[in-house]
Amino acid sequence: MAALLRSARLLKFSPSGVLQIAGTKRTGPPLCRLYSGAAGSRRSGVCARQISPAWEQASSRVWPCAVGCVRRYAVATEQKDHVSVGVLTNQAQQFDWALTKLDSSVRRTGRITKTLLLRIFHDICRKGYPSGNQALLLLRSCGSLLPEVRSEDRTELAHHVWEKLRELGAQYDVSHYNALLKVYLQNEFKFSPTDFLAKMEAANVLPNRVTYQRLIAAFCQNGDIEGASTILGFMKSKDLPITEAVFSSLVTGHARAGDLESAKNILPVMKGAGIEPGPETYLSLLNVYAEKGDMEGMKQTLEAAESADYGLMDRDIMQVILTLTRSGHKQLVPEMCERLRHERGYIPDAMNLCLNLITLGHEDTAFHLLKTFPSLQLDSSSDTPNMGNFFLRHCVNISTPAEKIANYCNELQEGDFHSTPLSFTLFCALEAKKIDLSIQLMKLMKEQNLPIRLHYFWPLLTKQLKDNNTDGVLEVMKGMQELGISCDAETLSRYILPVFPNVEAAQKALTEAGISMDSEHFLHSQVRLIAATDLAELHNLLSDPSFSGLDIGVFRINLISGFKKSTDVESMVKITLLLHEDDRFSKGGTKPADSSSYFLYNLIDGMSEEELRAQEDKLRSFFNQLQAQNITFPVSIFRGIRKLLVAKQVPELIEDVSALVDPNDRGESESTTFTFQETGIAGRVVALERKLAELKAENKPVGSVLKPLIQALSLEEKLERALELKQQHEDEMTAACYAILINLCCRHNNVEEALSLKRELSRKDSTMMLDANKSLALVRLLTMNQRLEEALDILKEMKEKEAVLKDTNLNTLFYLLNSVATKAPFSSSTIPTIQRLLDTIFSLGLAKPTANLCSPLITAYLDSGDVPGALEAAFECQKRYNQLPRIHDIVVALVEKGDTESLQKAMDFVSQERGEMIMLYDLFFAFLQTGRNREARKIIETPGLRAKPGRLQWYAEKCISSNQMESLEQMVDMTSKLFECDRDEMYCYLLRLCKKTNNWQKAEAAWTKMQEENVIPRERTLRLLADILKTNGQEVPFEEPETWYQQAAAPQQAKPTESSTTANGSASYQTRVLALCKKGKGNEAYELLKEAHEMGVALKLTLFDHTIRTLLANGSIEDALAVKDLAQSETPNFKLSEIATNLLIITHSKKGQVKEALQYMKSMLQSDHVPMQMAFTKLVQTMGSQGDVSGIEEVESLAKSLGTGMNLSSMLFISNSALAHIHNGDLDSAVELLEGVYTKPDSINPSMSFVFRKVLEADNDKALDKLSVMAERLANHFACYRPASDLFLQLLDKDKVEDAKFMLARCNAVAEQKGVLLSYVSQKAQSSGQLSKIKNLMSLVPDFAEKEVLYTYLMKCHALDKDLPAAKALLEQMQKEGIAADELSLKRLAGLYHEAGEALPFVEPPESFKFYADKLRQTMAKRPATAEE
């Protein structure tokens, strides 16, 4: 085929060898040569020439130049080696990921970005072994899906993808060649179809119908009808169908060949061939006329398409607009734009057209189209209009002149399309690192009196810094100077000076460029740069008497960096000495010695563990030389540094640091017992071990360290070391230490050691009693190790010492008994053991008999397969304890076993003890459970049997929780004739399970059965059924019931007439308006009010107030004020209610309109009304965020005038005043204000979390540093730990765990603020996704609360996160540690099991969540201190 085409005519190839030919205008044969039925022709057939395949000779007949241009993209890949299953799996996963990413982008926007495509391409290349699907996906993405990329660049990208993937071993088939063809067509890339076929032949890939169609389109795109006719003839000879796509291409081909008449005649030819022209054909003809600028022809074609019922879509019209623009007929574009119907999906299609036009250099046409965007399609996520962001960004990317962009921005702003277009354009220019454009845009902004900030220049400087481009930096600096922006120290030191070799070179270059350096900022930046690079030079500079002085805070970070990098210890000592003695470097009344001391602390704080270890010798030398210079610091600094060194596992330096402690404090440092809260348990053990050794060496008592050390070892499960400590310090062992060790032995299953410790404890203090949990853990250990008699002795001792078992201890008892029952392997002693334990527990009165406590006995029998024994045991429990545990499971087992004799015996017993009806229900449920439906039906149809709603609900809930659809269906069906059975309730159970399993077919069948039974369903049942059907896209076969307000809001069938202005009409409006307000539809209520007002209907004033409140709740303040004006036009004395006025204050505050909000607040007070707390809070918070200190003071005075009844937070005004000072840059005033709250004698230490949270959210490091220093100062000097605790918790809340660690190391007492920490845990456990924050806190402060309490919160988190595996693991951990789960935790865990459809391994607590929550709350409130505490 390729040879035949080649012999027909001579083709020209470009020397570049990229399948390109010169653009020549070729005219093909008349239409009569191609088709039968053409004008003036009687010939039939397709082509006069005979076509014969010549595949074999194709390669030998290709011209050398053709071979050269084909080889690069034509060589087929050789057969790859066998690829492993793992590689194939990896390919599939990569393809799914790439497809998802690209598909998501195309679905949302109709396009993909080059960045995304290259990311996926590089990722595929990096992982190797690209699959055919991945290659196809990438190739197809290189065409019109990249409107922001020029067509030639898209084609080049396609070639690069083709070549690279071929090198990596991708196998290409006909689909890949077709995809490449499609890309060529979309990008209008001129290539030789003949050589493309040759390429396929050389690769041994056979073309298919799609290939031929696209080759025809390629010929026609170039106006080569002769080539198109050759392929068309070949298709007919092969009996390949000729589709509309071929004819559409021929329309284009004839037109571009200059034969417009033949192009128009394609349509009748199609009809003659039995193919009706469709939208594609009409669109091709439209584009033909568009290329000619023939508006009349376009109108006729559109009319013809409409008369043929082929309405062209907006996307088709946009294609015509693109053709008109590219052909130079822009004047016709507005008329075509008027034909756009703004269909669904218009916005993304129009955006892509705009991007295409901008890429092609037709920004004006794109802007005209942009202004046709419907306003309703604006970004609803923002309160301000921002239409045109994509337009402005792309204009920046293609370097559109600044003047032109400015004109677009002005038009967008004047037309209310965009609120800040120029600022956004500057953002895009800065993001693209375009210096000239950015500076020009800033000049335009300055002309419009828009602020120009220094940080605008940082992105430009960052690029120059990265490239080490001094000329670029100077260019940016000149621009700054022209705009009147001066550099600060941070900009100079971070972005400008590092580009130059040294400070002198920078000063010289900047001076030569005419940039002034005579500023304090340059001095600051100079010191910063030198501090980080050359300590000797820094000392020379700072020690010069002419140096004016500089606060160390300006260059502390840089100096720390210099100290870490430098090996010049001598200069380090000289600088420290200078800081220690010279007050030029201490501002604000701080003593030089204090500044240098804090610097040393910050130096250690700023070094990682690895850096400290690597520079240990250097630091030791540094500290020793400081001692030689008589440099000392307070003991408080030593404590902080020592904590840091211990935390970072470098305690070797502590001795060297201790030598620097002030001699006056040295006695205190030696006599003071230091306790550390290390980062992690391991670090804590190390610190405590060291402290223990110190106390032993000093021959001092070790009791204060022994207990926490044993406790830490217990947390690390280090039993041997703990026992060793006990042996070494037996005289100082307390009862608490013994209790911890006994519990640790229980966890390690060390029964002998546990008993030995227990005997030692009794010898030391016979009155001492372990707490209930530890006692029961010991009982469990003894029981599991066949030491039953000793276990019973422990229980008797608990009774003698009047141990009180709480509800959590009862759960521990159950787990103890259940662990014995389920212990593998089963032994003959298991059941007697459980029986004796039960007898002892109940006879001693340690617990009252319950079905839950008795159930392990039955479990043991059932697990051993002794069902009759289980039955007898249940009988015995009923006789002795009046409990019948697990009777349902016993009956089910008997039914499954077919033991009719025992079953009869069981039923007789239940009937005698509980009544015949209970017995029948037990038997009924057992038959249902085992699938014996026939027998179950006989039971439920027993004459005289009545419905017992409680029993039916129990089994229904059991079926719902375990997804037993068949059993529940059978129960619903069998109870159809049960006396007094609530059929609606039964079907509601069934529909609940259908909802849970999303089974709409079952729900629909249930609806049919309800109709057969003539059941009258309740509204809740109908809503449930309707919800199931609608969720699954099914039609609801009944009218869904509505609430009264839904009915009232339904549109009326007829509009009210003049006569309806009566009391009834007023009542109707009132009902409808109130209904809409209840549903939150304030705008609709407003429209009804206007309608009533226009018709003269008198309405109550409360309706206006309700509507205003609803509108304000939705943030529609303008409409709310309009309703107020409407009400005042009817009743001049109309006044807003207190609630409406409060909402007005809140809404104004949220929108930042503090003046209006304050005005309404004052008007309320003048009317003797009291504003809500929320109104005060929102107004003050808004003032704080705006830096309005005086406004906050005014509101505070208004609040004080109301007396103490407002109950406002004590920190509301203080916190927001501080934030206002911070906003204004006055950090000292903020610190002074906050510090005064905590240093006054009657301070209640309120929380300042709000301040820290806002500062962290604003990423204001400077303010955070100041507040952090304040918090540490309050903790260290005033023993006020609340600010430090708040900062610590806020750092944790923002996932700044490392910062929180450092905070904890600097202020160890935070770990002792147990109430604050537990309150944080309680708060975090209220919402899902917060588990990691609680665990971070637990890892940093392991023992701030009892494990029972913490585990309760952790279980709550798992329940909120729906994480059953984690909840299971937590329960197992609790059981291992001998901690009983409270009933509330078990209730939550049971819910997770139900949702997962798994069987419960424990008995679910029967009461509600609220019941157990209240119970747990009361238990916590009454909890006494344990002996260990």
Gist of the model:
This protein is mostly helical and 1429 residues long.
The share of residues in extended strands comes to under 5%
Mean pLDDT figure: 80
Query: What is the number of E strands?
Result: 0
Number of helices: 79
Main sheet overview:
none
Task: Kindly provide the radius of gyration, computed on alpha-carbon positions and rounded to a whole number of angstroms.
Answer: 42 Å
Structural class: mainly alpha
Low-confidence stretches: 1-89, 376-382, 667-680, 1043-1063, 1423-1429
- Share of residues in helices: 55-70%
The N- to C-terminal Cα distance equals 95 Å
Can you describe this structure?
- By secondary structure, the chain is an all-alpha fold.
- It is 67% helix and 0% strand.
- The chain has 79 helices and no strands.
- Helix 17 runs parallel beside helix 19 (346-359).
- The longest helix has 25 residues, at 85-109.
- The chain starts with a helix and ends in a 7-residue tail after the last helix.
- Residues 1-89, 376-382, 667-680, 1043-1063 and 1423-1429 have low confidence and may be disordered.
Which tags fit this structure?
single chain, 1429 residues, mainly alpha, 79 helices, disordered N terminus
Write the layout of secondary structure elements.
Elements: H1 2-8, H2 55-61, H3 64-74, H4 85-109, H5 114-127, H6 132-140, H7 151-167, H8 174-186, H9 193-202, H10 209-221, H11 225-237, H12 244-256, H13 260-264, H14 266-272, H15 279-292, H16 295-307, H17 314-326, H18 333-337, H19 346-359, H20 363-370, H21 389-397, H22 402-414, H23 421-431, H24 435-447, H25 458-467, H26 470-482, H27 489-496, H28 503-512, H29 520-533, H30 535-543, H31 552-565, H32 569-581, H33 592-605, H34 609-614, H35 616-628, H36 635-647, H37 654-658, H38 663-671, H39 681-697, H40 703-715, H41 719-728, H42 735-747, H43 751-764, H44 772-784, H45 788-800, H46 807-821, H47 830-844, H48 851-863, H49 867-881, H50 887-897, H51 900-914, H52 916-929, H53 933-940, H54 949-961, H55 965-974, H56 983-997, H57 1000-1012, H58 1019-1031, H59 1044-1049, H60 1063-1078, H61 1082-1094, H62 1101-1113, H63 1117-1130, H64 1138-1150, H65 1154-1166, H66 1173-1186, H67 1189-1200, H68 1212-1223, H69 1227-1239, H70 1249-1257, H71 1261-1278, H72 1282-1293, H73 1297-1306, H74 1314-1324, H75 1331-1340, H76 1347-1360, H77 1364-1376, H78 1383-1396, H79 1409-1422
Helix pairs in contact: 1-9, 3-9, 4-5, 6-8, 7-8, 8-10, 10-11, 10-12, 12-15, 15-16, 15-17, 17-19, 19-20, 19-21, 21-23, 23-24, 25-26, 27-29, 29-30, 29-31, 30-32, 31-33, 32-33, 32-35, 33-36, 39-40, 40-41, 40-42, 42-43, 42-44, 44-45, 44-46, 45-47, 46-48, 47-48, 48-49, 49-50, 49-51, 50-52, 51-52, ...
